[in-house]
């Protein structure tokens, strides 16, 4: 393993010394500290391209450079596949669905699913997002009036957002599946131990029968196995119901109908097997819920830290609601968001500052040359403008590192400031990387987030509904929130990570003048 690992070398690129051990390199700091804390520290010291040590002498590249990321994600198509061990984690979390698939399998799966995620489809879900947000608000109002005299209470926000819309008919409060998913990531993938880091990084070298044996026995993966069982059960019931509706001629272009139709397809290139179909449902459930819910959590935290942002946001939302009522309407549509620039700016800034996934993992599928936005000084002091990389090199794309890159977002990139989105452009031509607002939060290219429009509209709906009805304030505990890395970035309280995701904020009903 050592010989194989050290054959793929980029030792001319600068990076931190592997302070943990030869066995684990820099991976403990990369994976165990607060999400992206190591990335930002190394970015400051070495620039936007950093060599980090993996297990047993392995070299990896941490990338925050715009042109290099654009090349990997967009220009190279499928030539930079996902890192093998991360695909294995995706398989364990959600089966052989879209986040696991690669190459031709991915192309086929994505082509089948894409029509379910267009702008029109996402827009049609807006009333469902508002209704879910409203339901949550009503619940909070009841809790506040039942529990406190001063009209406020400390809420442990852990799961908001419209969990049930993805497949319809699930009640968020009682559903076994919703509960299983809520804690899956923090329990199974949160703060990996040194043993887990080593095991996951060396999995690829084990024969598959032995790997599967360990995975079946692993206590750490018990929760993932249980979620798989519940998830497949729920998915099967929903699929049967959908198949019957389709037989009755009630089909449409929602994602469930597309999956069921592809399962029945005679054509190999548009067919999805039953295990694949179940995996897609579990994938959407997981990829869609944890990411959006945590982005909302981080947004609320930031606007509590800077109350003037919260006040400005609420003023815009109330004005927009008044306008809506004056025009005899009761419900926002997506086109109304265009007249709410500050709300959109807050959403954009939250997505930039707190990407729900802070890392994405790739491998060079061939010897390649990465173009660089910023010239890089290497170990012998020379400065290079492109970097030659060997086939098999593992790469960590630092989504947070890119999103806070000063070359891209300006000198104040490390400050949460929605106003940056309201400034007029300086006309400088930029390297465009992400699918939305040029942030890398939804990744880019052929493997970009398929549900980004859903996330965007869902975030708008929840933010509008919650800020319109409630005021949020920091509690002393919230000062100790850490950015806990567990496949996604979730808020936990320092030293109490084992209690799971929580964000204690003081919430009171907002009184309209
Ligand atoms: C704020 C919310 C969200 C964020 C930050 C986010 C972020 C991402 C990122 C970074 C990726 C690429 C991962 C990689 O390359 O390893 C991704 C992929 C994906 N996302 Fe999202 N996502 C969000 C919401 C959603 C929603 C709402 C859905 C579904 C309804 C969804 C479904 C997926 C799927 C299926 C993939 C795999 C796409 C592929 O590989 O072709 N995501 N997401």
TrEMBL record:
UniProt superkingdom: Eukaryota
Pfam families tied to this protein: p450 (PF00067)
Keywords annotated in UniProt: Heme, Iron, Membrane, Metal-binding, Monooxygenase, Oxidoreductase, Signal, Transmembrane, Transmembrane helix
GO molecular function: heme binding; iron ion binding; monooxygenase activity; oxidoreductase activity, acting on paired donors, with incorporation or reduction of molecular oxygen
Cofactor names: heme
Biological or metabolic pathway of the protein: Secondary metabolite biosynthesis; terpenoid biosynthesis
GO cellular component: membrane
Localization of this protein: Membrane
Keyword Ion transport: no
Residues reported in the UniProt entry to bind heme: 449
Keyword field contains Chloroplast: no
Family: Belongs to the cytochrome P450 family.
Protein name: Cytochrome P450
Organism: Pleurotus ostreatus (Oyster mushroom)
Taxonomic path: Eukaryota, Fungi, Dikarya, Basidiomycota, Agaricomycotina
């Amino acid at each position: 393993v050592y010989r194989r690992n050290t054959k793929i070398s980029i030792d001319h690129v600068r990076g931190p010394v592997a302070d943990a051990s030869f066995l684990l390199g820099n991976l403990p700091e990369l994976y165990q500290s607060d999400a992206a804390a190591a990335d930002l520290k190394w970015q400051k010291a070495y620039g936007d391209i950093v060599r980090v040590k993996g297990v047993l002498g392995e070299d990896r590249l941490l990338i925050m450079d715009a042109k290099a990321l654009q090349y990997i994600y967009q220009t190279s198509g499928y030539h930079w596949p996902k890192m093998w061990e991360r695909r294995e984690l995706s398989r364990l979390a959600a089966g052989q669905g879209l986040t696991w698939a690669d190459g031709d399998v991915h192309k086929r799966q994505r082509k089948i699913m894409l029509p379910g995620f267009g702008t029109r489809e996402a827009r049609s879900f807006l009333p469902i997002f508002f209704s879910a947000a409203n339901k949550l608000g009503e619940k909070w109002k009841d809790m506040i009036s039942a529990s406190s005299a001063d009209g406020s209470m400390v809420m442990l926000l852990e799961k908001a957002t419209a969990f049930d819309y993805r497949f319809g008919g699930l009640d968020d409060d009682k559903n076994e599946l919703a509960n299983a998913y809520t804690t899956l990531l923090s329990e199974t993938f949160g703060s990996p131990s040194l043993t887990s880091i080593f095991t996951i990084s060396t999995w690829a070298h084990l024969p598959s029968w032995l790997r599967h044996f360990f995975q079946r026995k692993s206590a750490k993966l018990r929760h993932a196995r249980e979620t798989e069982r519940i998830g497949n059960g729920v998915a099967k019931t929903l699929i049967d119901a959908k198949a019957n509706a389709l037989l009755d001629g009630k089909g449409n272009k929602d994602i469930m109908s597309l999956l069921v139709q592809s399962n029945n397809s005679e054509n190999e290139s548009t067919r999805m097997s039953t295990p694949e179909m179940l995996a897609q449902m579990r994938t959407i459930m997981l990829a869609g819920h944890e990411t959006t819910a945590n982005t909302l959590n981080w947004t609320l935290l930031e606007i509590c830290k800077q109350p003037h942002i919260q006040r400005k946001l609420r003023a815009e939302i109330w004005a927009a609601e008044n306008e809506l009522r004056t025009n005899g309407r009761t419900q926002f549509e997506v086109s109304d968001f265009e007249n709410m620039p500050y709300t959109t700016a807050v959403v954009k800034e939250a997505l930039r500052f707190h990407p729900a996934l802070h890392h994405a993992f790739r491998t060079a599928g061939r010897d390649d040359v990465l173009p660089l936005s910023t010239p890089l000084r290497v170990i012998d002091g020379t400065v290079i403008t492109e970097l030659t990389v060997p086939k098999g090199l593992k790469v960590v794309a630092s989504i947070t590192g890119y999103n806070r890159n000063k070359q891209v977002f300006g000198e104040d990139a490390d400050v949460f400031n929605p106003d940056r989105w309201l400034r007029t452009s300086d006309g400088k031509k930029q390297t465009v990387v992400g699918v939305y607002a040029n942030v890398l939060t939804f990744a880019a290219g052929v493997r970009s987030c398929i549900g980004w429009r859903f996330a965007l509209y869902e975030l708008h709906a929840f933010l509008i509904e919650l800020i319109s009805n409630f005021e949020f304030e920091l509690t002393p505990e919230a000062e100790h929130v850490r950015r806990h890395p567990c496949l996604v970035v979730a808020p936990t309280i320092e030293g109490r990570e084992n209690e799971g995701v929580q964000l204690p904020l003081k919430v009171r009903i907002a009184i309209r003048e």
